[in-house]
Amino acid sequence: MSFSDLCFRLVGWIDKIISPPDTQYESATPPEEPKHGPLLPKYASLRNAVESKLEHLVRHEIPEHRELAENDSLELYYVEIEATTDEGQALLDAFCKEFNPAARQQWVRKFFGSNATVRLDCLAGVFSSADMPSTTGLDLHSQILNQGTPAVYQVRLWSKWVQALDASSHSTAIVRGSAVVLRIRDSQGQHDDIRRETYPVKLGRQSEITVEGTFASAGHCTLHWRGGRVELEDHSKNGTWIDGVRLHQQSKPLSLGKHQIKLGKGQGEVKDYPEIELDILAETTPISQPTPLNTHTPIASDMQALLAVLSAQDATGNPHIDVLRLPFSIGRGAGSGYVTPPAHAGVSGLHLVIESFNDQGAEVLNEANAKNGTALGGVLQGERFFWPFGEEITLAPKWKNAPPVSILLKRPGGQP
Asked: Please, which pLDDT band fits residue 12 given cuts at 50, 70 and 90?
Protein backbone atom coordinates (compact mmCIF):
# COMPACT_ATOMS: atom_id res chain seq x y z
CA MET A 1 0.00 0.00 0.00
CA SER A 2 1.40 3.36 -1.00
CA PHE A 3 1.76 6.21 1.41
CA SER A 4 -0.97 8.23 -0.41
CA ASP A 5 -3.47 5.34 -0.09
CA LEU A 6 -2.74 5.09 3.61
CA CYS A 7 -3.38 8.82 4.09
CA PHE A 8 -6.69 8.60 2.18
CA ARG A 9 -7.95 5.74 4.35
CA LEU A 10 -6.82 7.49 7.51
CA VAL A 11 -8.80 10.66 6.58
CA GLY A 12 -11.96 8.58 5.89
CA TRP A 13 -11.60 6.74 9.21
CA ILE A 14 -11.26 10.02 11.16
CA ASP A 15 -14.30 11.51 9.36
CA LYS A 16 -16.44 8.56 10.43
CA ILE A 17 -15.40 9.03 14.05
CA ILE A 18 -16.16 12.77 14.33
CA SER A 19 -19.31 12.81 12.12
CA PRO A 20 -22.52 11.05 13.36
CA PRO A 21 -24.67 9.19 10.80
CA ASP A 22 -27.17 11.16 8.71
CA THR A 23 -30.08 9.69 10.66
CA GLN A 24 -28.77 11.33 13.84
CA TYR A 25 -28.87 14.74 12.20
CA GLU A 26 -32.53 14.19 11.26
CA SER A 27 -33.64 12.97 14.67
CA ALA A 28 -31.83 15.77 16.50
CA THR A 29 -33.70 18.49 14.59
CA PRO A 30 -36.41 19.88 16.94
CA PRO A 31 -39.88 20.15 15.45
CA GLU A 32 -41.14 23.64 14.74
CA GLU A 33 -43.59 24.77 17.44
CA PRO A 34 -46.64 26.88 16.68
CA LYS A 35 -47.15 30.31 18.12
CA HIS A 36 -49.28 29.13 21.03
CA GLY A 37 -47.13 26.20 22.21
CA PRO A 38 -46.38 22.58 21.29
CA LEU A 39 -48.89 21.08 18.91
CA LEU A 40 -50.04 17.48 18.71
CA PRO A 41 -49.44 16.79 14.99
CA LYS A 42 -52.61 14.75 14.45
CA TYR A 43 -54.78 17.64 15.76
CA ALA A 44 -52.87 20.45 14.04
CA SER A 45 -55.62 21.37 11.57
CA LEU A 46 -58.32 21.44 14.27
CA ARG A 47 -56.28 23.47 16.73
CA ASN A 48 -55.14 25.92 14.06
CA ALA A 49 -58.77 26.52 13.04
CA VAL A 50 -59.86 27.34 16.59
CA GLU A 51 -56.84 29.44 17.50
CA SER A 52 -56.97 31.36 14.22
CA LYS A 53 -60.60 32.22 14.97
CA LEU A 54 -59.82 33.35 18.51
CA GLU A 55 -56.82 35.37 17.34
CA HIS A 56 -58.91 37.12 14.67
CA LEU A 57 -61.40 37.97 17.39
CA VAL A 58 -58.71 39.51 19.60
CA ARG A 59 -56.73 41.28 16.88
CA HIS A 60 -59.52 42.59 14.66
CA GLU A 61 -63.14 42.24 15.77
CA ILE A 62 -62.77 43.36 19.39
CA PRO A 63 -60.63 46.43 18.51
CA GLU A 64 -63.13 47.43 15.78
CA HIS A 65 -66.01 47.29 18.25
CA ARG A 66 -64.08 49.13 20.95
CA GLU A 67 -63.26 52.00 18.63
CA LEU A 68 -66.83 53.14 19.26
CA ALA A 69 -67.35 51.63 22.72
CA GLU A 70 -63.95 51.47 24.37
CA ASN A 71 -65.19 50.19 27.72
CA ASP A 72 -67.33 47.30 26.44
CA SER A 73 -66.21 43.75 27.12
CA LEU A 74 -67.12 40.43 25.50
CA GLU A 75 -68.63 37.48 27.38
CA LEU A 76 -67.62 34.19 25.73
CA TYR A 77 -69.94 31.25 26.42
CA TYR A 78 -69.13 28.52 23.89
CA VAL A 79 -66.65 27.62 21.18
CA GLU A 80 -68.46 25.43 18.66
CA ILE A 81 -66.56 23.36 16.09
CA GLU A 82 -68.24 21.92 12.99
CA ALA A 83 -66.42 19.55 10.64
CA THR A 84 -67.10 19.90 6.92
CA THR A 85 -65.75 16.44 5.93
CA ASP A 86 -66.13 12.91 7.27
CA GLU A 87 -62.39 12.74 7.93
CA GLY A 88 -62.53 16.02 9.83
CA GLN A 89 -65.51 14.78 11.90
CA ALA A 90 -63.64 11.61 12.84
CA LEU A 91 -60.68 13.66 14.02
CA LEU A 92 -62.97 16.02 15.96
CA ASP A 93 -64.66 13.06 17.67
CA ALA A 94 -61.26 11.65 18.62
CA PHE A 95 -60.18 15.03 19.99
CA CYS A 96 -63.30 15.37 22.17
CA LYS A 97 -62.84 11.81 23.42
CA GLU A 98 -59.15 12.28 24.27
CA PHE A 99 -59.57 15.66 26.01
CA ASN A 100 -62.33 16.07 28.58
CA PRO A 101 -64.44 19.28 28.77
CA ALA A 102 -62.29 20.77 31.53
CA ALA A 103 -59.11 20.34 29.48
CA ARG A 104 -60.73 21.93 26.41
CA GLN A 105 -61.99 24.83 28.50
CA GLN A 106 -58.52 25.36 29.98
CA TRP A 107 -57.05 25.45 26.47
CA VAL A 108 -59.24 28.46 25.60
CA ARG A 109 -58.55 30.19 28.92
CA LYS A 110 -54.81 29.76 28.39
CA PHE A 111 -55.09 31.27 24.92
CA PHE A 112 -56.68 34.48 26.20
CA GLY A 113 -54.47 34.75 29.27
CA SER A 114 -55.14 38.03 31.08
CA ASN A 115 -56.95 39.73 28.17
CA ALA A 116 -59.37 42.02 30.04
CA THR A 117 -61.66 42.56 27.03
CA VAL A 118 -62.86 38.94 27.06
CA ARG A 119 -64.78 37.73 30.10
CA LEU A 120 -64.44 33.97 30.64
CA ASP A 121 -66.30 33.55 33.93
CA CYS A 122 -69.28 32.24 31.94
CA LEU A 123 -67.26 30.04 29.51
CA ALA A 124 -68.93 26.62 29.41
CA GLY A 125 -66.48 24.92 27.06
CA VAL A 126 -65.50 23.75 23.57
CA PHE A 127 -67.96 21.45 21.81
CA SER A 128 -68.54 19.65 18.55
CA SER A 129 -71.67 20.92 16.79
CA ALA A 130 -73.24 17.50 17.32
CA ASP A 131 -72.80 17.80 21.12
CA MET A 132 -73.66 21.47 21.61
CA PRO A 133 -75.78 22.07 24.72
CA SER A 134 -78.92 24.16 24.65
CA THR A 135 -78.22 27.82 23.97
CA THR A 136 -81.50 29.01 25.49
CA GLY A 137 -80.99 32.44 26.96
CA LEU A 138 -77.78 33.07 25.02
CA ASP A 139 -77.16 35.25 21.99
CA LEU A 140 -74.99 34.44 19.02
CA HIS A 141 -72.81 37.52 19.26
CA SER A 142 -72.77 38.54 15.59
CA GLN A 143 -72.60 37.22 12.07
CA ILE A 144 -69.06 38.53 11.83
CA LEU A 145 -67.95 36.29 14.68
CA ASN A 146 -69.94 33.42 13.23
CA GLN A 147 -68.38 33.23 9.77
CA GLY A 148 -66.65 29.87 9.62
CA THR A 149 -62.98 29.56 8.76
CA PRO A 150 -62.32 27.92 5.38
CA ALA A 151 -61.01 24.35 5.02
CA VAL A 152 -61.96 21.38 7.17
CA TYR A 153 -63.48 23.14 10.22
CA GLN A 154 -65.90 25.98 10.88
CA VAL A 155 -65.63 27.65 14.29
CA ARG A 156 -68.50 29.59 15.87
CA LEU A 157 -68.17 31.73 18.98
CA TRP A 158 -71.30 32.04 21.12
CA SER A 159 -70.81 35.32 22.91
CA LYS A 160 -72.29 38.74 23.55
CA TRP A 161 -71.08 42.23 24.28
CA VAL A 162 -71.50 43.64 27.75
CA GLN A 163 -72.07 47.33 27.30
CA ALA A 164 -70.25 49.89 29.38
CA LEU A 165 -72.37 50.54 32.41
CA ASP A 166 -74.11 53.87 32.44
CA ALA A 167 -77.19 55.55 33.80
CA SER A 168 -79.41 53.98 31.18
CA SER A 169 -78.43 50.41 31.97
CA HIS A 170 -80.36 50.26 35.23
CA SER A 171 -83.30 51.93 36.89
CA THR A 172 -82.54 55.50 37.90
CA ALA A 173 -85.13 55.49 40.70
CA ILE A 174 -83.95 56.95 43.99
CA VAL A 175 -84.15 54.24 46.65
CA ARG A 176 -83.30 54.13 50.35
CA GLY A 177 -81.24 51.34 51.88
CA SER A 178 -78.48 50.68 54.39
CA ALA A 179 -76.60 53.80 55.43
CA VAL A 180 -73.02 54.08 54.20
CA VAL A 181 -70.24 56.30 55.50
CA LEU A 182 -67.35 57.27 53.20
CA ARG A 183 -63.95 58.63 54.20
CA ILE A 184 -62.04 59.82 51.13
CA ARG A 185 -58.33 60.57 50.69
CA ASP A 186 -57.50 62.08 47.30
CA SER A 187 -55.41 64.81 45.66
CA GLN A 188 -57.48 67.46 47.47
CA GLY A 189 -56.86 66.06 50.95
CA GLN A 190 -59.09 64.08 53.29
CA HIS A 191 -62.88 64.20 53.48
CA ASP A 192 -64.40 62.42 56.47
CA ASP A 193 -67.78 60.95 57.30
CA ILE A 194 -69.75 61.54 54.10
CA ARG A 195 -72.99 59.73 54.87
CA ARG A 196 -75.59 58.52 52.36
CA GLU A 197 -78.82 56.56 52.83
CA THR A 198 -80.25 56.89 49.31
CA TYR A 199 -78.99 55.27 46.12
CA PRO A 200 -77.44 55.38 43.60
CA VAL A 201 -74.29 57.07 44.99
CA LYS A 202 -71.97 58.15 42.18
CA LEU A 203 -68.23 58.70 42.69
CA GLY A 204 -65.64 60.19 40.36
CA ARG A 205 -63.99 63.39 39.19
CA GLN A 206 -67.30 64.75 37.82
CA SER A 207 -69.83 62.91 39.98
CA GLU A 208 -72.20 63.49 42.88
CA ILE A 209 -69.35 62.80 45.30
CA THR A 210 -66.18 64.26 43.83
CA VAL A 211 -63.08 62.11 44.06
CA GLU A 212 -59.98 63.72 42.54
CA GLY A 213 -57.00 61.77 41.26
CA THR A 214 -54.85 61.41 38.16
CA PHE A 215 -56.22 57.97 37.31
CA ALA A 216 -59.78 58.44 38.57
CA SER A 217 -62.44 58.58 35.86
CA ALA A 218 -65.09 61.29 35.57
CA GLY A 219 -67.74 58.73 36.50
CA HIS A 220 -65.58 56.09 38.12
CA CYS A 221 -67.99 53.90 40.07
CA THR A 222 -71.45 53.80 41.63
CA LEU A 223 -72.96 52.34 44.79
CA HIS A 224 -76.38 50.77 44.22
CA TRP A 225 -79.03 49.26 46.49
CA ARG A 226 -80.09 46.02 44.81
CA GLY A 227 -81.87 43.02 46.25
CA GLY A 228 -81.49 44.27 49.81
CA ARG A 229 -77.74 44.86 49.71
CA VAL A 230 -75.13 47.38 48.58
CA GLU A 231 -73.38 46.73 45.26
CA LEU A 232 -70.41 48.59 43.83
CA GLU A 233 -70.43 48.96 40.05
CA ASP A 234 -67.26 49.97 38.19
CA HIS A 235 -67.50 52.04 34.98
CA SER A 236 -63.88 53.15 34.75
CA LYS A 237 -61.02 52.62 32.32
CA ASN A 238 -58.51 51.62 34.99
CA GLY A 239 -60.67 49.67 37.42
CA THR A 240 -61.61 49.77 41.09
CA TRP A 241 -59.90 47.72 43.81
CA ILE A 242 -62.14 46.41 46.61
CA ASP A 243 -60.20 45.04 49.57
CA GLY A 244 -57.23 44.42 47.28
CA VAL A 245 -59.17 42.71 44.46
CA ARG A 246 -59.66 44.42 41.09
CA LEU A 247 -63.15 45.02 39.74
CA HIS A 248 -63.44 46.19 36.12
CA GLN A 249 -66.65 46.90 34.19
CA GLN A 250 -68.61 44.70 36.58
CA SER A 251 -70.69 44.83 39.78
CA LYS A 252 -69.90 43.27 43.15
CA PRO A 253 -72.19 42.87 46.18
CA LEU A 254 -70.64 44.10 49.44
CA SER A 255 -71.14 42.75 52.93
CA LEU A 256 -71.88 44.87 56.00
CA GLY A 257 -68.87 46.51 57.63
CA LYS A 258 -65.78 48.26 56.34
CA HIS A 259 -64.22 47.96 52.89
CA GLN A 260 -61.07 49.56 51.48
CA ILE A 261 -61.62 51.01 47.99
CA LYS A 262 -58.83 52.16 45.69
CA LEU A 263 -59.50 53.89 42.36
CA GLY A 264 -57.29 53.25 39.34
CA LYS A 265 -54.74 50.92 40.93
CA GLY A 266 -54.35 48.66 43.94
CA GLN A 267 -51.42 50.63 45.35
CA GLY A 268 -49.98 54.10 44.89
CA GLU A 269 -50.12 57.66 46.19
CA VAL A 270 -53.59 59.04 46.84
CA LYS A 271 -52.97 62.05 44.59
CA ASP A 272 -52.93 59.57 41.68
CA TYR A 273 -55.00 56.70 43.05
CA PRO A 274 -57.60 57.95 45.55
CA GLU A 275 -58.59 55.84 48.54
CA ILE A 276 -62.06 55.44 50.04
CA GLU A 277 -62.90 53.75 53.31
CA LEU A 278 -66.47 52.54 52.90
CA ASP A 279 -68.43 51.55 56.00
CA ILE A 280 -71.78 49.85 55.34
CA LEU A 281 -73.91 50.15 58.47
CA ALA A 282 -76.39 47.56 59.70
CA GLU A 283 -79.44 49.80 59.80
CA THR A 284 -81.70 49.43 56.78
CA THR A 285 -84.62 51.78 56.22
CA PRO A 286 -86.00 50.97 52.76
CA ILE A 287 -88.85 53.07 51.42
CA SER A 288 -88.90 51.84 47.85
CA GLN A 289 -87.13 49.65 45.32
CA PRO A 290 -86.71 49.88 41.55
CA THR A 291 -89.44 48.17 39.58
CA PRO A 292 -88.25 44.70 38.49
CA LEU A 293 -87.65 44.61 34.73
CA ASN A 294 -89.93 41.71 33.94
CA THR A 295 -93.26 40.97 32.34
CA HIS A 296 -95.20 41.23 35.59
CA THR A 297 -96.89 44.40 36.72
CA PRO A 298 -95.84 45.03 40.35
CA ILE A 299 -98.64 44.82 42.87
CA ALA A 300 -99.31 48.22 44.39
CA SER A 301 -98.06 47.88 47.95
CA ASP A 302 -96.89 50.08 50.76
CA MET A 303 -95.19 47.18 52.56
CA GLN A 304 -91.81 48.27 53.88
CA ALA A 305 -91.24 45.50 56.41
CA LEU A 306 -88.80 42.67 55.79
CA LEU A 307 -90.81 39.80 54.27
CA ALA A 308 -88.14 37.10 54.04
CA VAL A 309 -84.41 36.51 53.63
CA LEU A 310 -82.80 34.52 50.82
CA SER A 311 -79.56 32.78 51.74
CA ALA A 312 -77.87 31.94 48.43
CA GLN A 313 -74.88 29.86 47.38
CA ASP A 314 -73.46 31.31 44.16
CA ALA A 315 -70.20 32.20 42.45
CA THR A 316 -69.70 35.22 44.74
CA GLY A 317 -70.01 33.17 47.94
CA ASN A 318 -72.97 33.17 50.34
CA PRO A 319 -74.91 36.42 49.84
CA HIS A 320 -78.00 37.17 51.93
CA ILE A 321 -80.77 39.05 50.12
CA ASP A 322 -83.63 40.79 51.85
CA VAL A 323 -87.08 40.46 50.27
CA LEU A 324 -88.76 43.80 50.95
CA ARG A 325 -91.48 44.07 48.33
CA LEU A 326 -93.61 41.88 46.08
CA PRO A 327 -93.38 40.61 43.46
CA PHE A 328 -89.69 39.73 43.92
CA SER A 329 -87.85 38.42 40.86
CA ILE A 330 -84.76 36.21 40.66
CA GLY A 331 -82.59 35.76 37.56
CA ARG A 332 -79.60 36.93 35.56
CA GLY A 333 -81.46 40.01 34.29
CA ALA A 334 -80.13 43.31 35.62
CA GLY A 335 -83.54 44.36 36.95
CA SER A 336 -84.05 41.29 39.16
CA GLY A 337 -84.34 41.66 42.92
CA TYR A 338 -81.60 39.04 43.20
CA VAL A 339 -79.26 39.15 40.19
CA THR A 340 -77.40 35.86 39.87
CA PRO A 341 -73.74 36.09 38.72
CA PRO A 342 -72.86 35.56 35.02
CA ALA A 343 -71.01 32.33 35.88
CA HIS A 344 -74.40 30.63 36.30
CA ALA A 345 -75.21 30.58 32.59
CA GLY A 346 -78.11 28.16 33.00
CA VAL A 347 -80.16 30.61 35.06
CA SER A 348 -82.69 32.48 32.92
CA GLY A 349 -82.86 36.26 32.65
CA LEU A 350 -86.13 36.03 34.56
CA HIS A 351 -86.00 32.67 36.32
CA LEU A 352 -88.71 32.86 38.96
CA VAL A 353 -90.93 35.33 40.76
CA ILE A 354 -92.02 35.27 44.42
CA GLU A 355 -95.64 36.44 44.26
CA SER A 356 -96.91 36.16 47.83
CA PHE A 357 -96.17 34.89 51.36
CA ASN A 358 -98.11 33.22 54.15
CA ASP A 359 -96.91 31.97 57.52
CA GLN A 360 -95.59 28.75 55.90
CA GLY A 361 -93.67 30.09 52.92
CA ALA A 362 -93.97 31.62 49.46
CA GLU A 363 -96.06 31.15 46.33
CA VAL A 364 -93.72 31.11 43.34
CA LEU A 365 -94.14 31.49 39.58
CA ASN A 366 -91.49 29.31 37.93
CA GLU A 367 -90.67 31.15 34.66
CA ALA A 368 -87.86 28.67 33.91
CA ASN A 369 -90.21 25.67 33.98
CA ALA A 370 -89.81 25.00 30.25
CA LYS A 371 -86.10 25.79 30.20
CA ASN A 372 -83.48 24.69 32.75
CA GLY A 373 -85.93 24.37 35.59
CA THR A 374 -86.11 24.85 39.34
CA ALA A 375 -85.85 22.00 41.84
CA LEU A 376 -87.22 21.83 45.39
CA GLY A 377 -85.93 18.95 47.49
CA GLY A 378 -84.29 17.52 44.38
CA VAL A 379 -87.60 17.41 42.48
CA LEU A 380 -88.22 19.60 39.43
CA GLN A 381 -91.19 21.91 39.93
CA GLY A 382 -93.97 22.95 37.58
CA GLU A 383 -95.05 26.38 36.46
CA ARG A 384 -96.21 27.28 39.97
CA PHE A 385 -95.15 25.80 43.30
CA PHE A 386 -95.06 26.51 47.03
CA TRP A 387 -91.67 27.20 48.62
CA PRO A 388 -91.75 26.49 52.38
CA PHE A 389 -89.61 28.42 54.85
CA GLY A 390 -86.49 26.46 55.72
CA GLU A 391 -86.40 24.68 52.34
CA GLU A 392 -83.77 25.09 49.62
CA ILE A 393 -84.37 25.42 45.89
CA THR A 394 -81.87 24.90 43.06
CA LEU A 395 -81.92 27.10 39.96
CA ALA A 396 -81.11 25.48 36.58
CA PRO A 397 -80.44 21.91 37.78
CA LYS A 398 -80.90 20.66 34.18
CA TRP A 399 -78.02 22.82 32.90
CA LYS A 400 -74.88 20.66 33.01
CA ASN A 401 -72.29 23.13 31.69
CA ALA A 402 -72.34 25.69 34.49
CA PRO A 403 -72.94 25.46 38.23
CA PRO A 404 -76.48 25.86 39.61
CA VAL A 405 -77.52 28.37 42.29
CA SER A 406 -78.94 27.19 45.61
CA ILE A 407 -81.23 29.43 47.69
CA LEU A 408 -82.59 28.83 51.20
CA LEU A 409 -85.78 30.68 52.15
CA LYS A 410 -85.66 32.10 55.69
CA ARG A 411 -88.19 33.93 57.80
CA PRO A 412 -87.64 37.67 58.45
CA GLY A 413 -85.86 36.94 61.73
CA GLY A 414 -83.31 34.82 59.89
CA GLN A 415 -84.78 31.54 61.22
CA PRO A 416 -85.77 28.76 58.84
From this structure: low
